[in-house]
Write a structure and sequence with these properties.
The protein is mainly alpha-helical and 273 residues long. The protein is built from 13 helices and no strands. The chain has helices spanning 37-46, 48-77, 81-95, 99-115, 119-132, 137-149, 153-166, 171-183, 187-200, 205-217, 221-234, 239-251, 256-262. Helix 5 runs antiparallel to helix 6 (137-149), helix 6 (137-149) runs antiparallel to helix 7 and helix 8 packs parallel to helix 10. The two termini are 33 Å apart.
Length: 273
């Protein structure tokens, strides 16, 4: 009986949205944002609802493109990805900022489109960013991540090769390249990348999961189980750890869903909601 193994990809973005603090826009003692770009953008990360409302008022008072940029960034941190991406695309060409800063903004527009699952638009904006900063490994890795989401594996490989030629110690990029090579049927090369990644980060759960997957695909059941067991140990509660645990059950002919449903309850356990 064929074992269906999980090969999940989980990508962590370098742009983490701050939690929305509800009700702060009208909190007593709130200090109005100063009428400058830097202060407004900092407020957008901390209090996106407040910053958005203030930036709208600022635009009405003549804040111009800086106020529009602040609104777009506040939308990004509010999780309004399509609206933010469209607003960023509209304002970036008018800002006249240095190439490095402009590239970063195009990258944020790409990230917003990626989260909105608009891969073609995300790719276009990342490409604009890389055109301005062709030796920025972060932008190359971000575009590779987007392209992996669209399963454009050869394009992913080209971006990661470029990024790793610029900064060869990026473990997340090495693991993603290993996953990409595995998808392309180049498991020997994928194995080399995984060994490199694990030499840099021995407890990388995603690398251990993928290593186990590749070993299982070639029939090395003991090797696969060893990697997955280690992935569970170092990645408890993570996506890689959960997938590795499922794979351990599957390779022994068990159904993870049934096993979980029929497992005896410990004293004090509460049913899952």
């Amino acid at each position: 009986m064929m074992i269906t193994l999980k090969h999940p990809l989980r990508f962590a973005s370098r742009l983490m949205a701050a939690a929305v603090l509800c009700g702060m826009a009208t909190a007593a003692g709130a200090v109005p944002v100063a009428l400058n770009r830097d202060t407004c953008l900092e407020r957008a990360k901390e209090l996106p609802d407040f910053a958005y409302a203030e930036a709208q008022l600022w635009e009405k008072k003549g804040g111009g493109n800086d106020a529009r940029l602040c609104q777009a960034m506040a939308q990004l941190f509010r999780g309004e990805y399509k609206e933010s991406a469209a607003a960023l695309e509209a304002v970036i060409p008018d800002l006249g900022l240095p190439p490095k800063v402009t590239a970063g903004l195009w990258g944020k527009a790409g990230w917003a489109w990626f989260n909105a699952k608009e891969h073609a638009k995300a790719d276009a904006d990342y490409t604009k960013a890389i055109g301005l900063q062709p030796t920025d490994p972060d932008l190359l890795i971000d575009r590779a991540t987007e392209r992996a989401g669209a399963e454009h594996w050869w394009d992913v490989l080209r971006d990661l090769d470029r990024a790793l030629s610029l900064d060869g110690g990026r473990v997340e990029a090495i693991v993603l390249r290993a996953e990409t090579k595995h998808r392309l049927g180049r498991d020997v090369e994928a194995g080399r990348d995984l060994r490199m990644a694990l030499s840099l980060d021995p407890d990388n759960g995603q690398a251990l999961l993928l290593s186990g997957n590749i070993k299982a695909d070639r029939g090395d059941k003991p090797g696969a189980k060893a990697d997955w067991t280690r992935a569970v140990q170092v990645g408890a509660g993570t996506a890689a750890g959960v997938a590795a645990q499922d794979n351990l059950l599957r390779i022994d002919g068990k159904d993870p869903m049934k096993d979980e449903a029929t497992a005896p309850k410990k004293a004090g356990d509460k049913p899952k909601s």
